[in-house]
Amino acid sequence: xxxxxxxxxxxxxxxxxxxxxxxxxxxxxxxxxxxxxxxxxxxxxxxxxxxxxxxxxxxxxxxxxxxxxxxxxxxxxxxxxxxxxxxxxxxxxxxxxxxxxxxxxxxxxxxxxxxxxxxxxxxxxxxxxxxxxxxxxxxxxxxxxxxxxxxxxxxxxxxxxxxxxxxxxxxxxxxxxxxxxxxxxxxxxxxxxxxxxxxxxxxxxxxxxxxxxxxxxxxxxxxxxxxxxxxxxxxxxxxxxxxxxxxxxxxxxxxxxxxxxxxxxxxxxxxxxxxxxxxxxxxxxxxxxxxxxxxxxxxxxxxxxxxxxxxxxxxxxxxxxxxxxxxxxxxxxxxxxxxxxxxxxxxxxxxxxxxxxxxxxxxxxxxxxxxxxxxxxxxxxxxxxxxxxxxxxxxxxxxxxxxxxxxxxxxxxxxxxxxxxxxxxxxxxxxxxxxxxxxxxxxxxxxxxxxxxxxxxxxxxxxxxxxxxxxxxxxxxxxxxxxxxxxxxxxxxxxxxxxxxxxxxxxxxxxxxxxxxxxxxxxxxxxxxxxxxxxxxxxxxxxxxxxxxxxxxxxxxxxxxxxxxxxxxxxxxxxxxxxxxxxxxxxxxxxxxxxxxxxxxxxxxxxxxxxxxxxxxxxxxxxxxxxxxxxxxxxxxxxxxxxxxxxxxxxxxxxxxxxxxxxxxxxxxxxxxxxxxxxxxxxxxxxxxxxxxxxxxxxxxxxxxxxxxxxxxxxxxxxxxxxx
Length: 724
What we know:
By secondary structure, the protein is α/β, with parallel strands linked by helices. It is built from 17 helices and 30 strands.
């Protein structure tokens, strides 16, 4: 061990991991090694520290392979990737080898059978986890209303009575002496509400003791086929009454035990990007992941994209089938279809060659091409008799859908849809953004804070009554350290210490960093542009090293001058405590998410950001500037306990309900000293209380930053758009 000090000089517990015949069956034996009693042959000094183990060698083994780890299996010695190998003297005859062949065939069958069993167990475990997270997201959404409305029982039972409880003090009706309830079912489409037969408002009972129980109450009968209860509250009846309808969305509580199921919404996304087949930026991820998430909640979702010529070489699109063709815009439009990531996608291909390009963007006619595509997509829906509930368009590139639908299609057969529009970045195509915001029934952007920051922009300022911020999410199947094949040890929140230590060691080996002292590893994964705070990224590198940490960066700059600056920084700081990699590398990015202790995201503005959420998925603590989506997802451990409890757990008191839900360190300003305020506290926490820091890493891994909660918000907004 003196030649490879696993686990530090004081470590006295080692494990050996043994296989045979070139690891034919993988690791077959694991045992704790025993430190040998010093002797003349095996002395104990600065150059000698001998351990031994006993291994049972199988009859047909041709060699013994082994590697050594510490007791936690975090630090390893694999003989510099060559493993340790000992030859085995062979005494087997021909009959023995024949017997071995039979044994190997039986073993192969057993392994194949076990692999199927393991795959099914893993699939079921993932399915159970998805269901748990979905149910938790629904519960949190409902819990965040309970300071206003709740029921007894908590979930109304179809076919039974329930008591509705309403607290006016937390609403716009706080002034009212009396409160009235207007109720319905199945998003106001129950037979009780047919022909606009909405019940008259009913007067609720006043609270007996408003100081201890401020809720107004009323008992209602829930029909046996009601899958949803619908509520609006008012200060009176008729003219002059004021209403609380939750900002136009109404209050809705799902029931248990209904004899009917909720009918699915039909949503069609029209976009020019979609991951993974046509990915340029975050827009592509949102189109795919949001579609999957909405479908996961039982709705019917489809996507329409242009048929780019580079799709012909995509291995994911080999199963495309013909759907239809028609004449439009002076050419023939051919539409094919194929499932991508579980979602049906339609590909619009005009015969004029408009999309026979090798990239999504980059030509002077991009705007006219995309406008043509939007109209062709609408024509496709009209020609095939589709009547979706929602047309969802994205950014300037498919903003044309909103105007074209209402001016050219709504009154000519495509009568049913309403239009949803999402702004992913306010910096491009602002005239088209404003046009779509005007014509759409709902406009969203990718986080609540970013919505507030851009609310004064002329593109949306005249339509704030239908402008909403809904944060993005990450796909838990794509970003999952318990299944990620690009990291050395798979792990979850319960094994985060072991998993991240192995990843740190691998990251250090990959970038040539020292492992001495197990210093905190601070990382940046980013495009190197002014928006991303390049002056603060540079400062983070210097400051991390001055605080005894290690700094790693993965990213590149589109501006050659900026790239040259970072090349110089890498040359200046690169060495045993800093590593720089100036290119896109998917494998390295995953290793950094797993191997870093801290991720720094000092953006000047950030509509949403996925880096901080992906980092938390891998147990890496975010240190961010509190702007846009960064503010909505990272809650400072010292200052945001109440906000974190509300957003993560729907709790109004973190000390008594749900505990501490904070997950990172944040700062407000744009100066180097502002970054130091957050980064110093983060590094101090690592050095002063490593056990607490590791527990924080486990905590952030258990938080749900998937699309579950955002999908519920989008579904709510879709229903609001169609008047349900």
